[in-house]
Amino acid sequence: MDAITRDLQKPVPWTLLYADDVRLASEDKGELGREVQAWCDRLERFGLKLGVKKTECLTTDVTESSSVKVNGIELPRTAVFMYLGSAVASDVKLMVEVNPRVSAAWFKWRSLTAVLCDKRIPERSSEDLQSNHPATIDVRR
């Protein structure tokens, strides 16, 4: 995909490619529509297809009424966009990304404290666990 679209690609962060995932960005909706259509046409020329059903449009302008069209099909708008496991929200706030990470860390911490604070677990086993998880070393002190 990189080779057949090299002339369509813009510098990071405007175009991001990872395997068969593409993220296009633009400051102008009309320009973005032209870019997406150019990508769609180029992929079709080489026997590939743009997954219109999996394609979404995210805008930070909440007053924007319409979306981008590809082959006459209007792309659905979304408030949160996931790309390679990271979330980008239309309100440009990080809570969509931060909350799940904090929850995952808290869940992991809760699962470790049962082992670290249990007096029935031999100290050697607990020390082995601490050496594998250096952030928990200060817990027992």
Tell me what you see in this structure:
- With 141 residues, the protein is an alpha+beta fold.
- It has 2 domains: 15-92, no CATH class; 97-139, no CATH class.
- The protein contains 3 helices and 6 strands; from the N terminus they run E-E-H-E-E-E-E-H-H.
- The chain has a two-stranded antiparallel ribbon.
- Strand 5 and strand 6 form a beta hairpin.
- The termini are far apart.
- The model has no long low-confidence stretch (mean pLDDT 83).
- It comes from Heligmosomoides polygyrus (Parasitic roundworm).
Strand order of the largest sheet: 1-2
Total of domains = 2
Separate helix tally: 3
Number of strands: 6
The chain-level structural class is alpha+beta
The overall pLDDT, averaged over residues, is 83
Which descriptor suits the 3D outline? elongated
InterPro entries: DNA/RNA_pol_sf, Rev_trsase/Diguanyl_cyclase, RT_dom
Domain Reverse transcriptase: 1-88
Organism: Heligmosomoides polygyrus (Parasitic roundworm)
Protein name: Reverse transcriptase domain-containing protein
Task: Throw out a few tags for this protein.
single chain, 141 residues, elongated
The gist of it:
By secondary structure, the protein is an alpha+beta fold. The chain is built from three helices and six strands, in the order E-E-H-E-E-E-E-H-H.
Write the layout of secondary structure elements.
Blueprint: E1 15-18, E2 21-24, H1 29-45, E3 69-70, E4 73-74, E5 80-83, E6 86-89, H2 95-116, H3 123-132
Antiparallel strand pairs: 1-2, 3-4, 5-6
Domain Reverse transcriptase: 1-88
Organism: Heligmosomoides polygyrus (Parasitic roundworm)
InterPro entries: DNA/RNA_pol_sf, Rev_trsase/Diguanyl_cyclase, RT_dom
